[in-house]
Every structure is written in structure tokens, then in C-alpha cells.
Design a protein that fits this description.
With 182 residues, the protein is an alpha/beta fold. It has a single domain, classed as 3-Layer(aba) Sandwich (Rossmann fold), CATH 3.40.50. It is built from 7 helices and 9 strands; from the N terminus they run βαβββαββαβαβααβα. The strands form 2 sheets. It has a 5-stranded parallel sheet, sandwiched between helices. Strands 4-3-6-5 form a 4-stranded mixed sheet. β5 and β6 form a beta hairpin. The longest helix has 16 residues. The radius of gyration is 16 Å and the shape is globular. The two termini are 16 Å apart. The structure holds adenosine-5'-diphosphate (ADP) and guanosine-5'-monophosphate. Adenosine-5'-diphosphate (ADP) binds next to α1 and α5. The site of guanosine-5'-monophosphate has 15 residues, from β5, β6 and α4.
């Protein structure tokens, strides 16, 4: 299992997009109660659930972890993780800092990777540039970024996403997916 965390807007999704074309990788599709964004596909980016549906899954024990992030619920599903790992694939999880540290505390084996922006100014530029958040949500995400950044020391590796290609290559190597090695 490879866990990817980092402040909102640092480029996690962009990096992950480049890794999931590899057939040895299975991306963990989380469940969330957040509203769907333009261009997102249910079942591919997330399973978009109502709060009631999400709570029912919690009761069933369907999640290895779940957390409230920016007022919405997000959870990692257990069944696809077990299937991918049994099949020898890399299970790639994008998860917030609380979720990653929860899994680490549970002793969940994996490579814990923190993606950092080159600077906070650049992080703000990227978030504004993405244009998917209201000014209020954007402000919350930027505030939280500073707290999350402090937690980077609890990860196995910190990858700075300045040059995208270099950052992707670094994560690929950490996941044991070097070119030509299978
Ligand atoms: P996250 O998933 O961490 O919230 P995204 O992957 O959505 O972040 O990236 C936020 C924005 O920054 C997007 O518009 C993306 O195109 C841009 N971006 C990502 N990586 C880089 C990079 N290395 N250089 C410049 N812009 C980037
Ligand atoms: P976004 O709404 O921008 O897609 O994601 C918001 C935050 O939720 C990000 O920090 C992302 O890593 C986190 N997240 C996504 N899926 C999960 C999950 O399954 N569990 C937890 N704990 N956090 C998640």
C-alpha cells in the first residue's frame, strides 16, 4: 500500500493520474459525502454517497478508516484494498493527514508519502487556478495546509512537487514501480 497525503492543491491528484495508467497500480476509490465537481466521475474519482449511505457503510465496517475533512466525510474501503494486495498490485491511497496517521497507528503496513508544494504562495496560486472552491472553502483549505505541513515529519518520505515529472518519478520509485521493473 502506498499512501499519499499533502495539503489541498499541492498536486496529489495530478501525480496520481500519471501513476494509475500502470497496470500494476490500483487506485483506491474513496467514498465521500462531498458534492461532485465538474469533470469528476462517480465510481472513478470517488463513490459519491449521501450522509445516510455513508453512515450505513460505517456500521457495516466497510472502511479501514474514515474521517471528516472540510465538513464532509471521506472513507477508504476495505474490500478493494484486500483484493489488490492479494493480487500483488500496488494499492495507491490518497488520504488526508488524519486518515494516514490513523492507519499508521493501527500498524497498517505501507509507504507513507507526503507531497509538499514548493511554497505556500505557489500552493495558493494552484488552488485559485484550479477554480473549484468557493473563496470561503479556499481560505479553510489554506489555513489547514499549514497544520498539515507540520505533520510531514511523521511520513516515510516527503516529495516536493515543483517539477511535476520529477515528482511523479520520485513517487514511482518509492512505490517500487521503476521503469522496466515488474
Ligand atoms: P490536490 O489533488 O493535491 O488537491 P491537484 O492535483 O488538483 O491538487 O492540483 C492543484 C492544481 O495545481 C491543479 O490545477 C494542477 O493542474 C496544478 N498542479 C499540480 N502539480 C503542478 C506542478 N508541479 N506545477 C504546476 N501546477 C501544478
Ligand atoms: P478533495 O475534496 O479535494 O478531493 O479531498 C479533500 C481531502 O480529503 C484531501 O486531503 C484528501 O486526501 C482527503 N481524502 C480523500 N479520500 C480520503 C479517504 O478515503 N480518507 C481520508 N481520511 N481522507 C481522504
Amino acid at each position: 500500500m502506498v499512501l499519499i497525503s499533502g495539503p489541498s492543491g499541492c498536486g496529489k491528484s495530478t501525480i496520481i493520474q500519471q501513476l494509475i495508467s500502470d497496470e500494476r497500480v490500483e487506485f483506491s476509490v474513496s467514498a465521500t459525502t462531498r458534492p461532485i465537481r465538474d469533470g469528476e466521475v462517480s465510481g472513478k474519482d470517488y463513490y459519491f454517497l449521501t450522509t445516510k449511505e455513508f453512515r450505513a457503510k460505517v456500521e457495516e465496517g466497510a472502511f479501514i478508516e474514515y474521517a471528516e475533512v472540510y465538513g464532509n466525510l471521506y472513507g477508504t474501503l476495505r474490500a478493494p484494498m484486500e483484493e489488490a494486495i492479494a493480487g500483488g498490485r500496488v494499492f495507491l491511497v490518497e488520504i488526508d493527514v488524519q486518515g494516514a496517521l490513523q492507519l499508521r497507528a493501527l500498524g497498517e503496513p505501507g509507504v507513507y508519502v507526503f507531497i509538499a508544494p514548493p511554497s505556500f504562495d505557489e500552493l495558493k496560486r494552484r488552488l485559485v487556478g484550479r477554480g473549484t472552491e468557493s473563496p470561503e472553502v479556499l481560505e479553510r483549505r489554506l489555513k489547514k495546509a499549514e497544520d498539515e505541513y507540520r505533520e510531514r515529519v511523521k511520513y516515510d518520505h516527503v516529495v516536493i512537487n515543483d517539477d511535476l515529472e520529477r515528482a511523479v518519478e520520485e513517487v514511482r520509485n518509492l512505490a517500487g514501480l521503476q521503469e522496466g521493473v515488474s
